[in-house]
Each structure stands twice: as C-alpha cells, then as structure tokens.
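Protein 1 of 2
SEQ + STRUCT:
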Amino acid sequence: MMSPLTFFIFALALVCTAFASPINGTAAALEKRVTHTGRGTWFNVGLGACGKTNVDSDKIVAISSSIYGNGGNCDQYMHITNTANGKSAWGKVRDSCPGCGPNDIDMSPSLFQELGSLDTGVLKVSWHFENKKFTLP
C-alpha cells in the first residue's frame, strides 16, 4: 500500500505529464517563416499561372518560377515591405514570374503603389509567406 505522500507525488507527476503533452494539431500548424529579400517590380495582370483572372486593382503577386514550382503557393498571402521607406502591404500569389530572380516578385500596379511610385519601377523589398489559413486583417 502507498503512503499518502507517495500517492500525492505520483498523482502530481501524472497531471504534469498531461499538461506537458502537445495538443493535437498544434505542432503541425506551426510553420517556419522565411523572409526573402529581392527586387519588386510591377506588371499588368490578367490570367495568371494559378488559373485565375485578375485586374490591375487586385493586390496580386507573381513569384519566381523556382519558388512557384507546381503552384503550391497559389492563393497564399504574402507580406511585402519596401526596405527603403518601410511601407508594407499584403498581396495574394496568383502568378509565376519566369523573368524574376529566386527572391524577386512582380506585383500588380495597385499593390506596387502601396509600397512606392510606379515611376520608380523597381523596389528593394523583403517578403514572407503568411500561413496558408491567413486572411486579411
């Protein structure tokens, strides 16, 4: 037979173990965020590689072909920052950019204008993908 103190310590250890166990699904939901730095340019949008048609007023991003791959990032939001002025905005991946370097992005005119002037043509930007379940605030 256990002494009351031994029983208490055993019960406390069981409770602590239960609280230390991960909750189903939370470990899989955590994603590592990788920030990329590259050139940001703009283009007139239309039918994109993701199979959807957009207009220039939509906040659309085309990512490099090397990152686009088979389209796994289609409809995923990106957070983009102009490193020169600190302005930032969100855009949705809807196209591939064959002429872009690995970390470069091409943006719709309306998205580009949130970060800088179209007359600039090219911006130095940093960006990262948001979680696939992300929705705009």
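Protein 2 of 2
SEQ + STRUCT:
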Amino acid sequence: MNSLRIKRVPTVVSNYQKEDSDDGARQVGGCGRNCLKQCCVQGARLPLYAFKRVKEAVNEKASNFDENKEQPLPFLDSLVLGEWEDRVQKGLFRYDVTACETKVIPGEYGFIAQLNEGRHLKKRPTEFRVDKVLQPFDGNKFNFTKVGQEEVLFQFEPSNIEEPEFIPNAPIDVENCASVVAINVSPIEYGHVLLIPKIFECLPQRIDRESFLLALHMAVEAGNPYFRLGYNSLGAFATINHLHFQAYFLATRFPIEKAPTRKISSVGKGVKIFELLKYPVRGLVFEGGDTLQDLANTVADSCICLQENNIPFNILIADCGKRVFVFAQCYAEKQALGEVSQELLDTQVNPAVWEVSGHMVLKRKEDYEGASEENAWRLLAEVSLSEERFQEVKALIFEAIACGDDDDKGNVSDDLVEEADGTPPSHEDAGAISNSSYPAAMVAGKQECLVQQ
C-alpha cells in the first residue's frame, strides 16, 4: 500500500540543522563547527551531572531531604536554567521566547495559549511519513551528533557513588555513549531543553526501559512540578528520528493535570493505572511503584507495545516523575487521509505532547486572539482515538504489561485487571463520572488509527 505522508514545517532544534542534509559525506578530520561527531568530539570536554540512582520509592528524594547536610548543585535552578540562560546571553536561540505572548484561556480547564510566530518562519514545509512509528536511524539526515558542542549544556549520567556529583569539565564519554542535555534553539517555553539518551549510539526515536528510566530520573532531579518532560513518537509529531525527550519550565498547572481520573487497574510492584475522564484526548495515567524502576518498566512496556503495534503516541512526565500520561493519537493519520477540516489545518498547529497536555502553541495572531476553550477542545478531539479503538488499545497495553510483569517476577499480578474499588485516586476523583461522559462532539471520526505495515 502507499505510505501516508503529511507536509509540515519542521521545527529547527539546532543552529546546525539544514533544510537538506548536505554533510552526510563529510570526511573525518574536523568539520570546523565543533560538533559531536567523531571529527570533533575526541578530546572534547563538557560539564557532567551524575545523578543518584533512586532505589526506593518515587518520592524518596523529597522525603530524605536533610537541611543540615551540604546539598549538591541545585539541578534545575543552577544547572538546567542557569546554563540555559548562559546560552541566551551567547545568542544561540532563534528568538526570545520570553517575549512571546502567553495567556490562560478562560474556562474550566484553563488551557494555555502562546503566540509563537518565530517557530516556523523561514522554513518550507517538509514531507513526513506518518504511518510507521518505528523507522531505522538514518545518519545522513539531521541528528543530534551534528549539533554544536556549545548547544550542549551537560552530560547526564548515573553516579557511581551514593550521592549526586557535578564535574564542571569532564571528558565526553564517547566509549560508554554518554547521555546529554542540549538546548532547543526554537524553544516553546523558558528552559526548553532536549534530553538525548546515549547520543553516540544513534538510537532511533523509540522508547525502551533504560531510556525512559533516564527521563524519570531527570524529572526527579529537577524536583519541581512545573518542570515537565515530554515525548513524541514518529507519527505523533516527532520530526527527528534520533531518540530524545523534551522538557521545559512553565509555572502553572497544565489542563491535563487537572483532569479527573478513574482507577482501572493495579499491577505488580505497586504501579496503579488510571483512565482520564472529561478530557478531549483519551489516555492513561501511571502512578506509584515500589521503585522508580517499577514505574519506568510499566510505562516503557506500554509504549513498546504501542510502537510494535504501529500506534503513534505522546508521553507527559509530570509531578517530578510521580505521574506519567500516555496518549495514543491519530491526528497526523487523519490529516494524511484528508479527514481534518481545512479550518483546523489553517492554524498550522501540530498537536504533539505539549498541545495534547493543554499548552497550545499558536502561530497566527488571529488564532491567539480568538483562542477559546471550545476551540482547544475541538482541535484535541481530532487527536483522540475513538472510544472503541481506545478500548482495543488499552487491552493491548494490559497484555503487554502482564507479559513484562511475568518476565520480571515469574508470575502475573492477580490484581492486574482489578477494577476501581471505590477508593479515591491520589488525584482528583472522578466520582460517578463514566466513560460515556464524553460529549458527542469529542468522538473521533470513523477512521481507525492503526495503520497496518
């Protein structure tokens, strides 16, 4: 069958990103731009933050805080945001994101609208394939080894001792495939960065247990609920097929974080799974776990299931790593099939993780001035799976979690499919709200979102 493709303006995340890849044939020996490829990285040094491995419960870091003990370098304020501000002073960003107009839209959920006209200027639309979530890495296309070293803030690795460490001038660990944090030169918000796991392995954009645990560790280290991490799969508005997460700081609650939930299951090792209610995009919420690894494994197994079944998805890591939202979505497929209204297409909004979470990045002043909760709801309703398809996907995920739990423990937890027992969830209780509480206008079109390979 013919592949499904859409045209969109790609986001420029690095100053070395080109319209066309013209440097795939560069010879080793120095490209003159101080990049992270073999030609420039040998002997290079960058700051290194080595985080403490969290072996206990997810909230262990906060509960073990000792004000009398000398604290390490504040990870979020001094390192992430401090180094980000340093790159602002050096003029590495394409525009001043702090000058972008932002407002909270009146309504029950308080969707956030931002006018960001600089993100897509001077770029021509590029064709993207949207019907294959898993695609092989292509070193001839732009990837993060091509960014300049000045765009990298620090290396991010687990510590070999019991405490976090900061080394301001450490060798770049090419042999062990260092993970790094770099700026996004087209920021959505203050402190917008990219977490790139094992950058030198050149992994494609796909979730695995180890990389997802790394992302959770970053959320834990930040220790601030207003610093969130996000992930977009291919087919769900990731445009660079090199494994990465995004993160930024925004000092207000996202609408998705306010949505009520209903507990639908518990799995082994203390992870609880909730279903979102009264929100335009259907999704699952994961919480708890006896350890951070338990939560990471359960979410990663769910995402691996979506990848292997060719279902595009987005992830939001919230509450300092304590809550993880996972959404399967089908907007790009509908767009490729001509099932999205021209009115929505004209907005040029690409509903990736931030938009799905309620932070609407708008590119036209008319859309910003006319922003309403109704308009945001209408856009996101096109992102969501139909109720029928969502239930099918949910069943696939539970089966995958059971298999993962079986691999870890040798048996499946008896309460894997335990229904809510009336105990209020740890966040806003949905009460008597049922799945049928979605308004009719929210139901997605008849086109299903799984594209067979």
